[in-house]
Amino acid sequence: MSFQLIITFVFGTLFLLIFLFRVVEPGYVLLFNKPFYIYWYPFPKKLNANQIHILENNFSFYRKLSAKRKVYFEHRVKAFVSNYQFVGKDVVVSEQMQVLIAGTYVMLTFGMRNYLSNLFDKIIIYPTNYYSTLNDAYHKGEFNPRMKAIVFSWEDFLLGHSATTDNINLGLHEFSHVLHFHCLKKNDSSAVIFQDEFNEVVKYYSNPNLNNVLLQKGYFRLYAYENQFEFLSVLLEHFFETPHVFKKEHPELYANISAMINYKEQ
Where do the structural domains in the chain lie, given as residue ranges? Predict the structure, then answer.
């Protein structure tokens, strides 16, 4: 192939990509309310046998995926573990810790194309609840933007992960805060959809009539009504832990959350 042909091919490819992202995808999002594509991994990253074993034993979400989507999920878990620093405070960081934390984040963002966030660069793990300088109190977990850190009490992370129907999941809760702030700062298709659906979701928090309906049914725990950020995080916990109940009790709100993260239960 001549140099001129190579240049033509490169510029043609760039033009096609620009056309797809600037022209085709906005129209696609408008019509179908989801990104034009989500996964494209010509050379997917691989997990070792023990890491896959941890996923199989701890994530029903992962077990329900097709063989192809399991490859995508594994690729994202590997990318997460490679991209962020894990820091143990009075605890040794194990492979299980890395995979369970990464798997929780990947599960939450699996329907989004751009899933990794630069709002944090480390995960700090304490053995149990810890003293936080964020508000001079003991915490079970937090997202600390100033430190660019997610912080977990491992005891409480495991408790939330193992109890799969109580609608309290520390990992999902804190990562939901990250996802929320991440999408408010970005303008890719997934972020735009997230923002649009959040505007619909937050009406249930800010509109007195809609809010009263939620309170009367009592499905969401009271902590959801602290502020709009906690409201969203609690809703996402319920979405993953008791989806059938959520869909039955609040079908329109459930549909908003489903569209927001581009995920439909298998």
Answer: 1-32, 49-260
